[in-house]
C-alpha cells in the first residue's frame, strides 16, 4: 500500500472496543483439551484469535481454510444484496466449535456439511457450533448465507484512511487492508492465513465484475444479468482480496516473457490513463532484473474511480487511484512500482504477523525510490538522509520499524523509515551481497509466510556473517544506529 500522506479525512471511528473486550473474555485462546478415556483429545473450541500483537482476535484457531467460494448477487451501488460464502476447511484439532471473522452484514445461517449449525456473534467474531464435533483432520464445508452491505466502511487515522467497501459512482472497489475483508465475507482474517478463492459475482448486464486472478467463465443469466467467475489461481491473504463492480473496460496486454496483463479501467478513464498504464511492462522488466521472476501468473491495474488517495497491492490486480494516473509521470510511476513490488514482498511472501509489515512496506518504498531516482525523480540518498534525520522522532512517536502499535501501524516509519533499514543493510554488506539476500528471500519464501526473525537469519546466512547485532538495533532499538558509510548523517533531537 502506498499513500501521499496527505491529512486524512476525519470520520467517527467505529466503537468496537467494548464488543471485542467481551469477545476476548468469552472466547479467548483455548489450551489443548484433556484426553478422553480413549486417549484421544476431547473436542474443544478453536481459538477465537491468533494473538497477533496488533489485532489479537484476528484470525482463528482449530482449522485451516482450503478454499473460499464467494457467490455475490450484486444489485446496484449502495444496495444490500444476497451473498453466500462456502468455506472448505480442515480441522487441525478436534473441534467442538470454531470462529470466523465477520463484521457487519446480516447473517441468515450457517450449515456444516449440509446440517444447520448454531451461531452467536460478538463484535467481529462469529462463533459456529456444528451439530456434531469435527474430528482432527476432518475436511468439512461451512456454508454461510447472509445479506452483504456494500456501504460498510471503517476508518483509521493513518495512511489507510477508509477501508472496507469503497463505493464508486456505478459500483464498488474494496480496500480490505488491514482487516476489512470481514466486511466483505466471513473469513480467517489474518495475513498469515492464505487460501485460494473462487469468486462468482452476478451483476446487471451493463456492469462488469472483476476479482483477483483469472476470469474463467462469463455466463448470461435470466433477467438481463451476467455471472462472472474468477479463480485466484494461487492462495492469497484476505487483506489482498480485490472485488470490484462497475462500468469497466478490460484492457489486455502482454508483459515480459508473455506474462498476461489485464487492466480494469472505468470507461471514461481508459484514454486519459493509457499513457502511464502502458509503462507496466517496463516496471516488470526492471523489478525482475532486481528480484527474479514475477511470482504470479498474471498482473494488471485496477483504476480506482474514488477520491481515496490510497493505492493497494491487491494480489495480481493492484488498485491505483485515478488521481495518480492523471498526475505527473514521476508520481504515477512511484505508486505503480510500489504496488508492483508488493507482489513479491507482502503478496508472494506474506506477513507472519502485522509486526512484520516493515518488510513489506519497506521493500516497496525502497524499490519505488530507487526506480524513481533512475527515471527523473528525487535522489534516493537524499530521501534516506531525510528519513535518517527523523528516525529517532518516528521511533518515539510511532515505534521502531518492527515494533509498531496498532494505531500507528501504517505511519511513515513503516514506509521511508523501514526502507532506511534496508538502505543501511545494503551499506553494511555491499550491493552485491544485498542483491543476493533479496533474491534468496523472494525465492526461498515464495508462496509462504515469513517473519522478521527469518529475514535476519536469511540475511546472516547469505552474507556469511551474523547480522543479528546489526539489524536488531535498527529494527527494535529506541535510538537510531549510525549509518554505515555516512558518518556525517545526523539524527535530529526528539521533540516532545
UniProtKB/TrEMBL annotation:
Residues 284-474 form the Peptidase M1 membrane alanine aminopeptidase domain. Residues 67-239 form the Aminopeptidase N-like N-terminal domain. PROSITE patterns: TAT. It catalyses: Release of an N-terminal amino acid, Xaa-|-Yaa- from a peptide, amide or arylamide. Xaa is preferably Ala, but may be most amino acids including Pro (slow action). When a terminal hydrophobic residue is followed by a prolyl residue, the two may be released as an intact Xaa-Pro dipeptide. Residues 1-33 form the signal peptide. The keyword Magnesium does not apply. Residues 31-55 are annotated as: Disordered. SUPFAM superfamilies: Leukotriene A4 hydrolase N-terminal domain (SSF63737), Metalloproteases ('zincins'), catalytic domain (SSF55486). Keywords: Hydrolase, Metal-binding, Metalloprotease, Protease, Signal, Zinc. It comes from the Bacteria. Its cofactor is Zn(2+). InterPro entries: Aminopeptidase_N-like_N, Aminopeptidase_N-like_N_sf, Peptidase_M1, Peptidase_M1_aminopeptidases, Peptidase_M1_dom, Peptidase_M4/M1_CTD_sf, TAT_signal. The keyword Endoplasmic reticulum does not apply. Residues 31-53 have a biased composition (Low complexity). Its EC number is 3.4.11.2. This is Aminopeptidase N. It comes from Streptomyces durmitorensis.
Amino acid at each position: 500500500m502506498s499513500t501521499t500522506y496527505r491529512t486524512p479525512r476525519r470520520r467517527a471511528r467505529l466503537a468496537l472496543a467494548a464488543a471485542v473486550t467481551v469477545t476476548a473474555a468469552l472466547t479467548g485462546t483455548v489450551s489443548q483439551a484433556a484426553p478422553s478415556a480413549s486417549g484421544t483429545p476431547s473436542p474443544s473450541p478453536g481459538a477465537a484469535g491468533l494473538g497477533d500483537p496488533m489485532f489479537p482476535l484476528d484470525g482463528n484457531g482449530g482449522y485451516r481454510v482450503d478454499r473460499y467460494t464467494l457467490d455475490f448477487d450484486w444489485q446496484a451501488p449502495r444496495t444490500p444484496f444476497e451473498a453466500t460464502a462456502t468455506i472448505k476447511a480442515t480441522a487441525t484439532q478436534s473441534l467442538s466449535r470454531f470462529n470466523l471473522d465477520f463484521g457487519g452484514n446480516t447473517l441468515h445461517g450457517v450449515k456444516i456439511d449440509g446440517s444447520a449449525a448454531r451461531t452467536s456473534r460478538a463484535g467481529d467474531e462469529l462463533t459456529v457450533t456444528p451439530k456434531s464435533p469435527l474430528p482432527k483432520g476432518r475436511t468439512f464445508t461451512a456454508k454461510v448465507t447472509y445479506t452483504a452491505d456494500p456501504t460498510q466502511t471503517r476508518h483509521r487515522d493513518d495512511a489507510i484512511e477508509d477501508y472496507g467497501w469503497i463505493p464508486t459512482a456505478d459500483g464498488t472497489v474494496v480496500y480490505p487492508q488491514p482487516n476489512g475483508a470481514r466486511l466483505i465475507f466471513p473469513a480467517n482474517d489474518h495475513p498469515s492465513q492464505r487460501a485460494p478463492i473462487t469468486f462468482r459475482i452476478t451483476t446487471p448486464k451493463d456492469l462488469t465484475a472483476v476479482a483477483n486472478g483469472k476470469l474463467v467463465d462469463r455466463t448470461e443469466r435470466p433477467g438481463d444479468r451476467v455471472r462472472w467467475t474468477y479463480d485466484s489461481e494461487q492462495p492469497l491473504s484476505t487483506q489482498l482480496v480485490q472485488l470490484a463492480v462497475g462500468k469497466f473496460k478490460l484492457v489486455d496486454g502482454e508483459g515480459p516473457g508473455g506474462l498476461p496483463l489485464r487492466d480494469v479501467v472505468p470507461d471514461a478513464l481508459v484514454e486519459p490513463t493509457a499513457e502511464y498504464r502502458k509503462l507496466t511492462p517496463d516496471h516488470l522488466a526492471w523489478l525482475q532484473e532486481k528480484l527474479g521472476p514475477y511470482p504470479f501468473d498474471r498482473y494488471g491495474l485496477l483504476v480506482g474511480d474514488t477520491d481515496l488517495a490510497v493505492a493497494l497491492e491487491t494480489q495480481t490486480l493492484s488498485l491505483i487511484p485515478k488521481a495518480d494516473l492523471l498526475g505527473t509521470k514521476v508520481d504515477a510511476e512511484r505508486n505503480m512500482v510500489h504496488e508492483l513490488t508488493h507482489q513479491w514482498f507482502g503478496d508472494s511472501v506474506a506477513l507472519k504477523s502485522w509486526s512484520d509489515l516493515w518488510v513489506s512496506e519497506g521493500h516497496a518504498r525502497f524499490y519505488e525510490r530507487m526506480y524513481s531516482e533512475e527515471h527523473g525523480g528525487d535522489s534516493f540518498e537524499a530521501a534516506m538522509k531525510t528519513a535518517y534525520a527523523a528516525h529517532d522522532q518516528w521511533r518515539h512517536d510511532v515505534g521502531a520499524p518492527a515494533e509498531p502499535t496498532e494505531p500507528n501501524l501504517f505511519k511513515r516509519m513503516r514506509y521511508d523509515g523501514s526502507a532506511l533499514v534496508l538502505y543501511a543493510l545494503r551499506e553494511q554488506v555491499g550491493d552485491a551481497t544485498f542483491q543476493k539476500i533479496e533474491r534468496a528471500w523472494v525465492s526461498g519464501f515464495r508462496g509462504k509466510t515469513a517473519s522478521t526473525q527469518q529475514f535476519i537469519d536469511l540475511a546472516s546466512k547469505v552474507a556469511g556473517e551474523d547480522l543479528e547485532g546489526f539489524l536488531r538495533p535498527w529494527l527494535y532499538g529506541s535510538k537510531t544506529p549510525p549509518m554505515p558509510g555516512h558518518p556525517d548523517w545526523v539524527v535530529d533531537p526528539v521533540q516532545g
